[in-house]
Amino acid sequence: DEKNQILTTNTWLNQIWIDYSLQWSPEKYGGIKVIRLPHDSVWKPDILLYNNADVSTFLSSISSNVIITSDGNVTWLSMVIFKSSCHINVQYFPFDEQNCSMQFASWTYDGFQVNLVLNTHEGDVSNYIPNSEWNLQRLYVQRNVVYYSCCEEPYPDITFYIHIRRRPLFYVFNMVLPCILITLVALLGFYIPSDSGEKVTMGITTLLSMTVFMMLVAENMPPTSNALPLIGIYYGITIFIVSAATGMTVLTLNIHFHGHHGREVPKIIKSICLGFLAKIFCISIQKPVPPFRHNCLYTLDTESTPDKNAYLRFQPSTQEIDPNGARSDFSSLVPDTHIHRAEEEKKLHANVAAKIHSEKPPATNGFLPQISLFRNQESGRTNFSEAYEQDFMRVLNKVSNTIEKNETRLAEQEYRDIVRLQWQQVAQVVDRLLLSIFMVITLITIFGVMFRAPLTGE
């Protein structure tokens, strides 16, 4: 019982002494050399277990008759279940070894009255039944003599030293392996996509699981502050690792969603994470590919990484469409066929008007009204064409402004998407880096605990 620090043993206790008052001559009693009497009918030495931890020890003892020989030799064979106090050293639990002792001595007789001697220095384990949790390494006996300050008489005692070693398979399978698996599952949280929203939840769940296992260990251990059990140290380190991993998960989530604010990745972080670390962890970095647009008044910088000033080299046009039909910079947005057709029509009207004004009036006045009418018709047609062209160019100016705004908005959106993508890639690289770091720490912790244990080779 590690929690109460009690060792329970089922022993066969054999006591042999000489009682001179029980001697007889076999010739006088028909050659009888051995007799058996109830144990409570003869004198017995008050040999007690000094480190007894159970007041009902004698109630759990089975005492047979005593065997008395004619020379006064008395043998008392009894079977007793002892519960003795034993200092439990939990430093290497569950790979621990314990050294317990059972001290037997007389309670009222000193060494001059009852002298305790040994039959053998090794305990008899011929009838030992192996325990499922402990292995008996050694059992030996030693006689000690103690002198107290009150008395000059010696007080001998017989002490049995029991060296036992725990079988750790049960605890390894039920406590150590689940802890290792839970830790690995917690580290796999770095592989969960940040958009799933389950990274922190998994870390907290594994942390609670580790806490439950640590409570199970605390229930089996004595409340001592002399030494921490090895498995408790391992659980403490593992809980710290899982807690740190959960905290780092929050950091990576912050990095992942940092691009929503539109802030660019600093050049130092960009060169370290997207350049150096990405190559080490074999992470393919997706480079931004700007779309190809025909009628855009900006250019996309495809070199290296997005810079807002370099990525959007936008030059908005400040020139308006000439109401008289003059072409502005937005003429590039109009198909060439329409522009050539408008120019030819304008040139034709101008040539006709110049020819009419350059001709001399005829000699006869009969044709003058017809020529004036022709001029009025041509002038009206020219004015209608110019008005139509002015309206057309005015509408075209509005359309071009709308297209220009849409292109600017799309370019801004593409820029934000690329910035967001780069922050997500930085978060992915940081996740992989933290996974490697915590995996190394976990392996060092596991092997450190295993090699520190005294039963590593078994």
TrEMBL record:
<dbReference type="InterPro" id="IPR036719">
    <property type="entry name" value="Neuro-gated_channel_TM_sf"/>
</dbReference>
<dbReference type="InterPro" id="IPR036734">
    <property type="entry name" value="Neur_chan_lig-bd_sf"/>
</dbReference>
<dbReference type="GO" id="GO:0097060">
    <property type="term" value="C:synaptic membrane"/>
</dbReference>
<keyword id="KW-0770">Synapse</keyword>
<keyword id="KW-0812">Transmembrane</keyword>
<comment type="similarity">
    <text>Belongs to the ligand-gated ion channel (TC 1.A.9) family. Acetylcholine receptor (TC 1.A.9.1) subfamily.</text>
</comment>
<keyword id="KW-0406">Ion transport</keyword>
<dbReference type="InterPro" id="IPR006201">
    <property type="entry name" value="Neur_channel"/>
</dbReference>
<feature type="transmembrane region" description="Helical">
    <location>
        <begin position="268"/>
        <end position="285"/>
    </location>
</feature>
<dbReference type="Pfam" id="PF02931">
    <property type="entry name" value="Neur_chan_LBD"/>
</dbReference>
<keyword id="KW-1071">Ligand-gated ion channel</keyword>
<dbReference type="InterPro" id="IPR038050">
    <property type="entry name" value="Neuro_actylchol_rec"/>
</dbReference>
<dbReference type="Pfam" id="PF02932">
    <property type="entry name" value="Neur_chan_memb"/>
</dbReference>
<feature type="domain" description="Neurotransmitter-gated ion-channel ligand-binding">
    <location>
        <begin position="1"/>
        <end position="168"/>
    </location>
</feature>
<dbReference type="InterPro" id="IPR018000">
    <property type="entry name" value="Neurotransmitter_ion_chnl_CS"/>
</dbReference>
<keyword id="KW-1133">Transmembrane helix</keyword>
<feature type="transmembrane region" description="Helical">
    <location>
        <begin position="230"/>
        <end position="256"/>
    </location>
</feature>
<dbReference type="InterPro" id="IPR006202">
    <property type="entry name" value="Neur_chan_lig-bd"/>
</dbReference>
<feature type="transmembrane region" description="Helical">
    <location>
        <begin position="200"/>
        <end position="218"/>
    </location>
</feature>
<keyword id="KW-1015">Disulfide bond</keyword>
<protein>
    <submittedName>
        <fullName>Uncharacterized protein</fullName>
    </submittedName>
</protein>
<keyword id="KW-0325">Glycoprotein</keyword>
<dbReference type="InterPro" id="IPR002394">
    <property type="entry name" value="Nicotinic_acetylcholine_rcpt"/>
</dbReference>
<keyword id="KW-0472">Membrane</keyword>
<keyword id="KW-0813">Transport</keyword>
<keyword id="KW-1003">Cell membrane</keyword>
<keyword id="KW-0407">Ion channel</keyword>
<keyword id="KW-0675">Receptor</keyword>
<feature type="transmembrane region" description="Helical">
    <location>
        <begin position="169"/>
        <end position="194"/>
    </location>
</feature>
<feature type="domain" description="Neurotransmitter-gated ion-channel transmembrane">
    <location>
        <begin position="176"/>
        <end position="444"/>
    </location>
</feature>
<dbReference type="InterPro" id="IPR006029">
    <property type="entry name" value="Neurotrans-gated_channel_TM"/>
</dbReference>
<dbReference type="GO" id="GO:0034220">
    <property type="term" value="P:monoatomic ion transmembrane transport"/>
</dbReference>
<feature type="transmembrane region" description="Helical">
    <location>
        <begin position="433"/>
        <end position="453"/>
    </location>
</feature>
